[in-house]
Amino acid sequence: MFEIIKSDLAGRIGILHSNHGKIETPAYVPVIHPVKQAIPPKKIQDMGFDLLITNAYITMKRHGQDATKRG
Question: What are the record's GO terms for cellular component (predicted)?
Answer without folding.
Answer: cytoplasm
